[in-house]
Amino acid sequence: MISNQARKEIDIWVAKYPEGKKSSAVMQALTIVQKENGGNLTNELILAVADYLEMPAISVQEVATFYENYNDKPVGKHVIRFCHNISCMLNGSDELISYLEEKLGVKTGEISKDGLVSVKRVECLGACVGAPMCQIGDQYYENLTEKSIDEILDGLK
Amino acid sequence: MADIEIEIDGKVVHGYSGETVISIADREGIDIPRFCYHKKLSVAANCRMCLVDIEGNPKPQPACSTPSSAGMKVHTKNEKAKTAQKAVMEFLLINHPLDCPICDQGGECELQDVAMEYGSDISRFTEGKRIVDDKGIGALIQTDMTRCIHCTRCVRFGAEVGGIVEMGATGRGEDLKIEPFLSEGIQSELSGNMIDVCPVGALTSKPFRYEVRSWQMNSIQTIARHDLVGSNIFTQTHKSKVKRVVARENESINETWISDRDRFSYQGLDSENRVLIPKLKIKGEWKDASWSDALDFAKNGIKKNAKEGLKFGTLASKNATLEELYLLQKFTRGLGSDNLDYRLDTSNPCNAKVLESNISLTELETIDHALIVNSYLRLEQPMINHRIRKATLNGASISTINAKAFNFNYRISHSVLTSPQNTVATLSGVLKAVLDKSSQTSPDYLKNVTVHQTHIDIANALLNAEHPVVVLGEHVNGNRSSDQVSKLVSEIAKATDAKTLNASLTGNAHSAERVNFKPENGKNALQILSSDLTGFILFDVYPNFDCIESKNAIEHLSRDDAFVVSMNSFADESVLSFANVILPIASFYETSGTHINVDNIAQSYSASVKSAGESKPGWKVIKVLADLLNLEGFDFTDSPQIADEALSLTPSISEIEVPISNSEMPSITTVWQYTPYASDVVVRHASSLQQTRIGRMSEASVCKATAKLLKLSEGDFYKGVPVNINESVAEGCVFVHTHLPRQLGAV
Amino acid sequence: MDKENPSSLVTYENMGGYKVWRKILHGELSPEKILEELKTSGLRGRGGAGFPTGLKWSFMPRNQKGQKYVVCNSDEGEPGTCHDRDILRFNPHSVIEGMAIAGYVMNATVGYNYIRGEFMEPYYRFEEALKEAYDAGLLGTNINGSKVCFDLYSHLGAGAYICGEETALLESLEGKKGQPRFKPPFPANVGLYGKPTTINNTESFASVPDILSRGGQWFADLGVTNSGGTKCFSVTGNVKNPANFEVSMGTPFSDLLKLAGGLRKGRTLKGVIPGGSSTPLIPAAKAMKMTMDYDSIEKAGSMLGAGSVIVMDDTTCMVKALTRLTHFYYDESCGQCTPCREGTGWMYRVLKRIMDGKGKSEDLELLLSVQDKMLGNTICALADGAAMPVESFITHFREEFEYYIKHGKSMVKNDG
What is the ipTM of this complex? Predict the structure, then answer.
């Protein structure tokens, strides 16, 4: 269930914590296996992580459902996480999200027909001086405009 | 001793420094509302219902998590406290369905009770209420999670008491949901306690669902009879039926918990397999009969076949009451027979010294090492296992010597897998290691014993412990060298200053031992079922399940010249096949009686309901039959008189010396263990327990090497039980864990 | 300064970095002296609660046997706040040095920097800096034969605002849900893995090396009474040039607004949230009179919090703004305490209903009552953070809410 590559990556995290405290690596382990699985978690993956880190499955499930960045359903290849919180809202994030939805033909929470993109409204991502902003993968995109959104979308493959 | 003084609502009270405010208030009888707090669970402080005003604090503080300090002034009912409590109550109720009329918790709901005092008549919440999907968690617990108030008592119970983390709180915020990972069902043998700790109707008893309202029932104090703890319970009855069983607090016995077996077995009482009227077999045909005809028939048959007792034998269930066992042995001995036994599942029912238990249940929590021999303690004796688990939470380590690696709910430090035929050698190894390490002289019988590293590890663990205990479990009963195993366990304990706990004497076996329900010079269970006796009384015995050589037993009892009086609470095919008369007797909760537990505490109880159909309490049936046979000393008018007489006597069977030797053993043996829900006739008929994962368990585990010798492969059946080949079993044996009858008898 | 690579070790050392740490490694600086300087500096926790850092460090049982931990809270997520991100990106070594010093003072040999899961760029920068520090022999066991030990690791979150609460952060670091723990016991006694632990915010740690190299008094003098030193403010919202500004404590708000380019053309100031979304809103007139320090902001009716200044001009619909903030708390409540779990959703639903044109006249009193019942009744301050904006928005802009309820639409023209 968990690839050797993923195990290696998880082990790097496990090594950061004291003996017997493997469960500290659970968040990263879930992040790693979710990424490998194309963006979402499954019950099987949760069980596999529980097994690998010697945790009760329900405890892993608690973590997987508590934190925002885990998805229990499939998502687009790229997830555009658009901040709609106060500083971004004051700078027009709502209008830009509408623009994005219209352009992609999807609502937030949906996946584009080609499976390439899904859009998610998220709370503050901590880049308020660059409002409005969004996150795609590891990357933040700040001071967004309709034009820059067009460019970003063009760059997604 | 209490060392500080604080003030609660103007009353000066005493507590220990650091003790929580709620704990002091509870002791003083000062009522503080609460939902998440439970004195046996860790503090969560999340429901916020117990907010109180503590002088000097700007904000109200939770009484459950606030440590007291000298001079603290607490107000639980002033305006500040009440305002906070009422605020929390309003929040709790906004999403709680107001379906009390159809909720099984209605009438015994903590939320309902507190809401009466702190709630408001009109809800200001006009948005849609939350509805939560139910995953379902198995046959025992009904979930209705829309009613859940997220107190997390059930979650903490699983993690802290049950020892299996099954329920969790997933999601966050409003979407927080109490649920298990998958809906396959809860696996804990203590799961029903979650019903008791749930303050609302989110977790209720599934078998009890919609049966009757709680206030329509009578609660009767009684004792659970399935294991050697004798947990204190209430049977809750309605129209002379037991509708529910709940825990009754007794700190020194079962604290506030009971096992699922004790909680849900009552369902068996209602089984359609109950025998409700006396029956006679005339010319091979069963006919219903009146009590007087049946008793007459029994009397005449016994008179004719007992031959002054020489040809008479009695077998009884280890779950019978002290009174029943006492009268039955008096009856048997009165007839001039010494052929009697309760050790039906024992392959070596000799009169070797019975291993004594000399540690109390509460003391078990203070041990720092336990060596568990021949036992899957968690399923055999859930409440004893729970005490040991508590000790492990305080750092105790555990070793095991078992035929299989079991799924304990604590870590096992040293484990030796050993087949029944090698158990004497293994224990000898441990004993020798102990004696060597502690510079004690070894007796001759240890001369040629090989000591392995694992034996040394266990010896060290025992010797290094300050309060060790050795526990002997029920697998020993099927071992032909059980006398030697007991002796070695006792020697190991002696040499390591360890206490001992004999968990092989389950059910009410302590009562049977107390009244000498075994032969001094007469025939034991195996001999009764294989010699030329012609008159028998079987008291709640179902040879199909209960007798170790079940096939032989049934054949023997079916002989033409055998006259069998069966006093039964349940009908059973094998009993019908060999018995000549069936006298229906009252089952659990239908008769008064006494149970003697592992701490040697005799707990008497009265009947909770009247016995089913025309069945009668066993002691009355035995007494009347004795009177009919003109036996003396049966002038009892109630069961306490019998108990008094029984308890005034002391066991007097002389014990035989046990030499340690290489006894003949087959090269491959079987360990046969019933699931906890097949351990006696009542629980075998409890339908909900049978549907649980524990109840459905049926597996003959065998390692590859042994499977090869037995020519077994995956998918085969061994004695009627599906084979599972895995390496958790000792070589040379098959470990059968099942709910099925012993179809082919033990090897 | 190496503008190409501001986060590098070379740049940091050229600016005087690791001077204090090296002194410690040479045995030239005692824990007592460090605590004294910190107390003199008046440094208060930059994460929001404003607890004096020196005092916090002195709570640690440094002589107690066993493992102790230092944890950095880089789980920046308070709406309006983004200066820790920049510290991690551009000055990660200051955090490393600050944490190492803390470890030395408190006899804690292991540190973790909890970085929010979305901060991947800052995380990579911090990891690079860590590697540089290790390679340069500044971290590890018995560093340069000094007998001083300090190992530092980063930990990544996965999206939960509540993990910025220090005990929730510890739970999360242990691999659990981020649910705050009740106190007492405090982390200084029972912290990470049950061991004594001190948690400080990124900016707090980053301030420590400078304070110790230039002296506590120097830092204190930069600020005003009760608010020592400089502070990094994130100025966001309706300003021309939103940015982070490190200014002296006590700087007038109006000056800070000017630094951010002031309001956009033709706009007037309506209100300011001075310390991040959890702090009460201050109406324009009061805001223009306040200075940026703990006492002055408190006098104006709010809190300095994380120094996250959210500026709202006259185009802002206060109903919409509050609904958005309330949604945030509704979304981020961990769910364990009843008032927060139930109250955040209740308030959000009422506001949402008002926004949908279905408001009722009694809704405002209901909102005020609900927020009041949440306030102070929970384990952590998230419920307070959810409550205070409701109270302040409705109090200061009541007519806007009444208008919305009555007309089913905003009284602010520019708002859709």
Answer: 0.97
